[in-house]
Amino acid sequence: MSSNSKLDAGPPSGGGIPAITGEIDHSRAIHIFPESLKPVRSTILAYSASIVSTTVGFPLDTVKTRMQTHKHFSSYFDCVRKTYLNEGVRGFFRGIYAPLLSTSASKSLSVLIFTAVKPHTYNFIYSGSTSSYLRDHPLVCNAPVCFFTGAIAGGGVSLFACPFEFTKVYAQVAKLVQRKSLKEIPQESLDIEKYMKQKFTTAEAIKHIVKYKGLAGLYSGYKYHLIRDSLSSGVYYSIYESVKWTVNSLIPSDTVGVSPISIGIAGGVSGIIAWICIFPVDTTKSLIQNDIVTEILRKESGLAPLPKKNRTLVRYGRKLYRGLGISVSRSFLVNMIFFGAYEFSMAHFA
User: Fold this and answer.
1) Which end of the chain has fewer CB atoms < 10 Å from its terminal CB, N or C?
2) Membrane spanning segments where (predicted)?
3) Prediction pTM value
């Protein structure tokens, strides 16, 4: 957003409301980056903000994934209780290293692509437009620009993020899948100690996937991952910037810049709406990836593969929204923290 007390009514050159943040007010800077790091300043700050938000929200993500892929949990509380009793606190953070690297990198890459592409999207959409209202009104002008730019950013990032996310899902559900498979192994040939020692770390998950499915196995469920990330990023950025502009324009204030209240509200609302829109796609992706985890662990245990399941969006109805409540809560928290930390650092770290 711009650094004036209220956001400009008309779009600056280059396309609508400025992408994510505007110019730095150097009088408020609390840290100055060395000249050599200034070109990658926004990437560093986005990565750092994402590490914090990912760590805070990861336990809720674990509960969400387990609720999506396993029916024996009767409620969120039941899932939390059983996870803690069987695996301790570590069970909630199983597989966190992959997203700490990938989600943080994906978020910073997404912001980088969005910021770079947005002016070009604006020029493409409005280059021949004769309607001054479309060009000049911030919300009307900005929403489609942000949606299409966000979709491009999400699609691009999905190529990088899919292997890491599948590794995360593998680590999150492997213990549950393994517990089911143990019931089919003859007791005389069951090595309990061996199975108890399996920790399903990020490194072990990658090793298992590549061993049994090859490198292409890391992209299991990619079609749905691509749809999810493209759609969610489009909704995410368009809602974030629109809500931030609207809330900020309603807050009576003489202070310079964007109110932290508008940033927090916009971050939380954008996360909620984006997740509601793409949750069925995410559930389908998780179910497909859970099937692959099951197939791999059954092969390792010498068990016959299960019949392939027909995983489609239309087949499950309301079941596709199983785990939505905790996902919405997590998304609100994570995005409020991310955008709050990112916009604050962008305004104060020059």
Assistant:
1) C
2) 261-281, 320-342
3) 0.75
